[in-house]
Amino acid sequence: MLNLPILAFLVALGPLMGAQDAGSAVTEKELREAFRKEYASTDEAARSEAITALSDASRTLPDGGSSKMLARTFASAMKSDKSPAVQAAAVGALAWGRHVETSIDAMSDMLHELSKLSAKLSTRPDEASRTQRRQATQLYTQLCQALSRHPDDRSLKALEDELRKQRPRSGSGSASVEFVRPLSTALLQLGSQKAVECVVSTTAVFSGSALVNNGGTARGLHEVLAAYSEEVGYGAAAYSDRYDQFWRKWLKEHKSDLPPKLGKLKEPVEAPEYRPNNRSRDRKRPGERERP
């Protein structure tokens, strides 16, 4: 059997081979069989490379790699493999172009599992647990980004459920707030009334007396909302200890301009567009100065 890199190379050449050699095109079944052999490695780098190679090669198949079986293959690796590198590769594979329901369900479940894992690790002071928690946070952020590329009410529900669970730190408490920013960013990317309303409602959670121990989270939340508001053309006020009141007023003024619902995707999402960062070095962060 051909090894996976060779198969990936042949698939990549497929469009150039044309009809003359159409009978020799590599099939999804052959790719998955080659993948299983490579993925059996005990080396996590090899398993991660196998995920990436299968992902890249499958996107050149006639259906673009959108079969339910392929999505299940990546979802299984994401859930069952304990290597952060392999999990990250699997999330990257699921992020676009895959079977919609399978991808959203798998990523939503993983988001919930990582939240529980982070809460458990937060009480452990050893270095190994801290490292594992950092890795879980990175993967969580990647999942938020992937779900935000799927404008679907199921993605919205998964992100909304997670954001509503975030609670402020109280004194030396270990409540997790590091997920507030990626969740809020993802919800604003979805951009429906319910998604934006959920983020604005969160400002009330991180306001008032909660600002004493959660000022950084509050400012980050304000900056995410300010960046979104600027992007859609509404502008934003400077951050203050009454930022939550500003955003509630802002929502009341602009809610009707937002799409009421997202609905359910029927087709796999396309590859994300490249969006250059056009901020100059000396440009202030969103919401740091008053807008007219």
Describe this entry's structure for a reader:
Helix content is about 60%, strand content about 0%. The chain has helices at about 5-15, 30-40, 45-60, 70-80, 85-95, 100-120, 125-150, 155-165, 180-190, 195-205, 210-230, 245-255. Helix 4 packs antiparallel against helix 5 (about 85-95) and helix 9 (about 180-190) runs parallel beside helix 11 (about 210-230). With about 290 residues, it is mainly α. Residues about 10-25 and about 275-290 have low confidence and may be disordered.
Helix and strand arrangement:
Layout: H1 4-17, H2 28-39, H3 44-58, H4 68-80, H5 84-94, H6 100-121, H7 127-148, H8 153-165, H9 180-190, H10 193-205, H11 211-231, H12 243-254
Helix pairs in contact: 1-3, 2-3, 3-5, 4-5, 4-6, 5-7, 6-7, 6-8, 7-9, 8-9, 8-10, 9-10, 9-11, 10-11, 10-12
Q: Percentage of helical residues?
A: 55-70%
Overall shape? flat
Instruction: List segments where confidence is low: pLDDT < 50 over at least 5 consecutive residues.
Output: 8-23, 276-292
What is the average per-residue confidence, as pLDDT, rounded to a whole number? 87
**Strand elements, count:** 0
Rg, Å, rounded: 22 Å
Order of helices and strands: HHHHHHHHHHHH
Number of H- or I-type helical stretches: 12
Please report the distance between the alpha carbons of the first and last residues. 66 Å
Largest sheet: none
Strand content: under 5%
Q: What structural class should be given to the helix and strand makeup?
A: mainly alpha
